[in-house]
Design a protein that fits this description.
The radius of gyration is 23 Å and the shape is globular. The protein is mainly alpha-helical. Helices cover about 70% and strands about 0% of the residues. The protein has 21 helices and 2 strands. Strands 1-2 form a two-stranded antiparallel ribbon.
Length: about 475
């Protein structure tokens, strides 16, 4: 570490004016998007980080996962335990990678460039970007469905448009997401701060509605057939793949945590903010999903795992408007911060000022249309045990390598100037490629994906994120130790 270029201020490493001049003197990744956030401009405290996770967790996706586990055959308390445990475990990944954001004020792209190399970065960046774009499209479609219900309730003739009306509603909601994302992290902070308490209250209404269908008897509600175990399903057969899926569910957000924690005033703010809100709110919204699913069974006599479909079953305009508003706010807070901003930051870091940040947000959002989100949500089982496991197969190995490299290879100590410059420096590796990291990542991803098609390896795919993170992390650490021994 060159003390002329960077200095330690408490738990922060700050770039000096000489360091900034050194970076700008050379070809580099330096831009308005990638430059470290100065200490004087950091204003995210414990409450702000907690609000971020409340907005991310109090989501329709978590509601649907809880409902999906019930439909798959778990009891309500088995589903609740599985979801909370999985979302708690992934917090440790988020905190470790979030530590980098706080310490250096730098974003996910720069962490990837430092660990994978300036050229090797493209592979994990593309994977993270594709997953973010895919989920953004899916969530925007869910929000669009809710907006469609609101418009049709106010203007009944809108229902005659059928799919066209839903698609137009989707585009309107899509545009709202893009507008907020284009405004950057400040807009996200304001959005999360306003919506977090509102989401808690509105989701409480779902619980109360569920209770009303059971004559205000919690035992009657939780004894509904849809929230009881199915005789033909073994809990442990469901539990392990479901747990891995729950960990993977927020794996992409955990990976991108430096994009948010770089705005934090301290490590304590990001650690306490994450641990105090994510597990608690996961349990809360999962229970909302349980009550909504049980209430749907008691009220309408069928399994309904999609909230927008449930809303469509009501004839009351007030209920349709109220529940649809809840879906829109819940999706909006999750979709912008968790799905759209990460790929926007990645693309903005790569193009280095050739397009404005708002234009990059529009570009990335347009790509989500090619995912055809209206065809992606076919069933609860498919969402949890296929889509989410695929997500885990892609994110697990990357996460394991990031954790091992940051904690054990570099011991959290990076040279900021070398992190930015191109074509030279200690993080240039082999002509811009960290081949050790890339081979481990590609190898484990291929191995896990093969488990989808080879029966004897199905257990590997069914626990994709766990196998990927632990396996790739251990193997990568072995290559690090071997490299030190031979040096």
């Amino acid at each position: 570490m060159d003390t002329a270029f960077q200095e330690e201020k408490g738990s922060f490493i700050v770039l000096t004016s000489s360091g900034e001049k050194e970076i700008q003197r050379k070809k580099s990744f330096w831009s308005d998007v990638t430059r470290p956030v100065p200490l004087t401009k950091r204003d995210w405290r414990t409450r702000d980080v907690a609000n971020l996770w409340i907005g991310l967790i109090v989501s329709i996706a978590v509601y649907q996962v809880a409902s999906g586990l019930l439909v798959a055959g778990m009891t309500w308390y088995e589903a609740l335990l599985t979801i909370v445990l999985g979302h708690t475990i992934v917090m440790f990944v988020a905190i470790i990678l979030g530590h980098y954001g706080v310490k250096y004020g730098m974003n996910y792209t720069m962490l990837g460039k430092t660990i994978f190399g300036e050229k090797g970065l493209c592979i994990p960046a593309i994977i993270r970007g594709i997953l973010g774009i895919f989920w953004f499209g899916v969530q925007a479609w869910i929000g669009g469905q809710a907006l469609n219900i609101i418009i049709a309730t106010i203007f009944p003739a809108w229902q005659n448009l059928d799919f066209l009306g839903t698609f137009l509603s989707f585009l309107l909601f899509w545009a709202l997401n893009v507008y907020i994302a284009a405004s950057g992290n400040k807009a996200v902070k304001v959005l999360e701060g306003i919506s977090a308490p509102l989401l808690i209250v509105m989701s409480l209404i779902v619980i109360l509605w569920g209770l009303s269908t059971a004559d205000w008897n919690i035992q009657t509600l939780l004894n509904a057939p849809v929230v009881q175990a199915r005789d033909d399903v073994d809990f442990w057969t469901l539990f392990w793949p479901a747990l891995s899926a729950m960990i993977a569910f927020d794996g992409g957000i955990a990976l991108s945590m430096p994009d948010f924690t770089r705005n934090c005033v301290s490590q304590k703010a990001q650690i306490v903010g994450q641990l105090s809100s994510a597990p608690l709110m996961t349990g809360y919204i999962a229970f909302v999903g349980i009550c909504g699913t049980a209430g749907a069974w008691l009220a309408f006599g069928k399994e309904i795992w999609e909230p927008a479909v449930l809303v469509g079953c009501f004839s009351s305009p007030v209920i349709r408007l109220l529940f649809s508003s809840f879906i829109i706010i819940a999706v909006l807070t999750t979709n912008v911060a968790g799905n759209l901003l990460p790929p926007v930051n990645i693309v903005a870091s790569y193009i280095k000022g050739r397009l404005s940040y708002p234009k990059v947000a529009v570009l990335v959002a347009v790509l989500s249309l090619f995912a055809q989100p209206w065809n992606s949500l076919s069933s609860a089982y498919h969402l949890i045990f296929d889509v989410t496991q695929l997500l885990g197969a892609l994110l697990g190995p990357i996460s394991g390598i990031y954790i091992i490299s940051y904690l054990l290879e570099y011991h959290t100590d990076f040279d900021i100037v070398d992190s930015y410059i191109q074509g030279e420096g200690k993080y240039f590796y082999m002509n811009g490629w960290n081949m050790k990291a890339l081979l481990v990542m590609v190898g484990f991803t291929a191995f896990i994906l093969s488990g989808k098609f080879i029966p004897s390896l199905n257990f590997v795919f069914n626990n994709a994120y766990v196998f990927g993170t632990l396996g790739a992390g251990i193997v990568y650490y072995m290559t690090v130790l071997l490299g030190r021994k031979n040096s």
